[in-house]
Amino acid sequence: MPMRFASNTSRAVPLHVIDQEDMSALETLPASVKTWAETNGFKAALGEVLAVPGEDGTVSVALVGYGAPKDRARKRFGLAAARAKLPAGTYQLQGSLEGEALDEAALGWLLEGYRFDRYANQSRPVAELIAPDGVDAARLEAIAAGEALTRDLINTPTQDMGPADLEQIARDLAVQFQADIAVTEGEALLEQNYPMIHAVGRAAHLPDRCPRLIDMRWGEEGPQLTLVGKGVCFDTGGLNLKPGGSMALMKKDMGGSATVLGLARMIMSLGLKLRLRVLIPAVENAVSGNAFRPGDILTSRKGLTVEVNNTDAEGRLVLADALALADEETPDLIISMATLTGAARVAVGPDLSPFYATRPEDADAIRNGAKHVADPVWEMPLWSPYETMIEPGIADLDNAPKGGFAGSITAALFLNRFVTDTPRYMHFDIYGWNPTSAPARPKGGVGMGARAILAALQDLLDL
């Protein structure tokens, strides 16, 4: 389904937004429309649709319910549900929506158009929308395209989205937006001092499955933003093998890299005045005779030693080497994104994006951006008293502290140890998966935090 606004604006059907608590807008419509609404019991519930036929039997007017404020507060993109219910055709939004509410309605319409159709044809006639007056159509289409990329990458099974496939996606983006890209893979990771990326990925030794570090750069002026995304294309748990039920969704363990690439696409498509660097350690955490083991002590790019107490806590290991590389340039801001801990899901569920920030001002900017673009976040604390939990004594750091307490916080503290020269660092511990379908968010892979970051960049980097 299209994730763009309608290009053919002729014969557009008026689509009237009706507020459930103030249905006076019906009074402004022809009496026949009001009568049709009353006859059909139209209540203006959020996302409720009523098509009004004209004399020739085609839709002449359509109504969509806006619900009550409490409904809108509990369901993001509620109006987007109308898209799947309306007859195919071109529609033009009518009503009193403006500002952020109008932006949310227009973006939700675009996002509702997403379908993952790589393996099954899901095409059908659809309802299209003319870009409403007052919205930045190009910006919303760029956001929708970035989100679609993220969803596609997460939804694709690992047989078609291994490390080499993830690299190819990054290369395609680099070509599309005239970015530079370099990739270090296999044994060259050891030669160029990325030992933990190599250790985690070395068990997947086939050429298209071997570990690699993807390094993409774009932009020649402005502040430098470095995005680091966890690219574990499948996570068996390694020798600490996951049970079958826990392994079922592990194609999404590269959700951090998918979200970073989607965000990078948004930034490049919008031509933001900044210097962007994207780092993705792409690996499979596989099982073979040369897999890394519990009890191993790895020496990181940073020089810090890490005791491996669980091979299923591998994401922070590959991120650590990539973060150390990012830190060597001391960019203006480093942001890492990862489907890192189950502890974060227990804490906040699948909808919220937990994040950590080394500066309160940066956290404020993210929160402010998030509330304006319907991309909810929740700040978590880099609680320094827990530092001792990641210090095993036999090595500098422990990748999987015992006890199970504060698992998301200790993971973020672990990563923060590898960003020592860059004052401004943020980490997002996202889920990357929508467990049940909702308006504009079908079941499956989903971007989290990207729109909030994009909205916050103006304040974060003084663009």
Automatic annotation (TrEMBL):
It comes from the Bacteria. GO terms for molecular function: aminopeptidase activity. The keyword Transferase does not apply. PROSITE patterns: CYTOSOL_AP. Keywords: Aminopeptidase, Hydrolase, Manganese, Protease. The keyword Metal-binding does not apply. Residues 310-317 form the Cytosol aminopeptidase domain. SUPFAM superfamilies: Macro domain-like, Zn-dependent exopeptidases. This is Leucyl aminopeptidase family protein. InterPro entries: Leucine_aapep/pepB (IPR011356), Macro_dom-like (IPR043472), Peptidase_M17_C (IPR000819), Peptidase_M17_N_1 (IPR048816). Belongs to the peptidase M17 family.
